[in-house]
Amino acid sequence: MNEKIGPTVLDRLPVVAALAMFEELESGFRMVKMLLTAIENRRDTPRPCNAVPESVLSVP
Question: Do the domain assignments include residue 48?
Fold first, then answer.
């Protein structure tokens, strides 16, 4: 008389673990995207006027 009516918690465990891993992966991708966006934005910003030109810094 011990019939399973539906999936038990142990049956759902792999699905829950996969979802948790996906969440971690997604948050990692989001962090990398934010970092790349910050680097891209930094590259686009003009340097201040008092910055030393690269030609002065380069040694012949």
Answer: yes
User: From the centroid of its chain, how far is CA 17?
Assistant: 20
Q: What's the pLDDT band for 50 if we cut at 50, 70, 90?
A: low
Write out the residue range of the structural domain in which residue 50 sits: 9-56
Counted domains in the chain: 1
Q: Compute the average pLDDT of residues 27-46.
A: 85
Within-domain flag for 18: yes
Model pTM score: 0.47
Tokens of 49: 């006027």
Between 28 and 1, where is the model more confident? Answer: 28
